[in-house]
Write a structure and sequence with these properties.
alpha/beta, UDP-N-acetylmuramoyl-L-alanine:D-glutamate ligase, five-stranded parallel sheet, four-stranded mixed sheet, 4 helices
Amino acid sequence: MTIRFDVVAFGELVVDLIPAESASGNLLFRAVPGGAPGNVAAGVARLGQRAAMLSKVGPGPLGSLLIETLARAGVETRGIVRSQVNPTALAVVSLNAAGESDFLLYREACADSLYEPGEVALDIVHACRVLHVGSLSLGSPLSAQAQRLAVKTAKKAGALISADVNFRAAH
C-alpha cells in the first residue's frame, strides 16, 4: 500500500478548560483543544508533513471544536469517530503551588475511552510511516484493544511505533 501519512496519531482528544477571569472578576473557563496525540498530529501537519488522527469524540460543539481545529491545522480527520451519546473528555486546568499546570481529567465513560477496535480506520493505519500512540487509551479495556489492534496493524505494515507515556503521578 502507498504511504499517504508521515504520522498517524492514535488516542485521546480532550477539551482543556483553561481559567480566564472576566471583566467582573468571575472565574470563567475557555475551551481549548487538547490531548497529547492530537497535539502531535497538529504539530506534524504544521511542519508540512502529512498527518492523520484516529480517535473518538462526543456529539455537539466540543467534539466539533476538536475535529475542526485539527482539520484547520491540516490533519486528516476522517479517522475520528463521533459518538452519538458519550461526551468528549474534559480536562480542567489550574496552576499548582509550584506554578505548573495541573490537570483534572474527566474521562470516565467518555467517547475516546469507548473507542472500539471495529471503529479504527485500519486503511489509515496501513498507510502510515509512523503510528504515534498515547497512553491514556490503555486505561479502558475497549480503547486499549483498539490501540493494540492499531499497533499490530502498523507493525505488520512496516510502520514505526512512537509512544507518549503521558505519565501522571497519583496525588
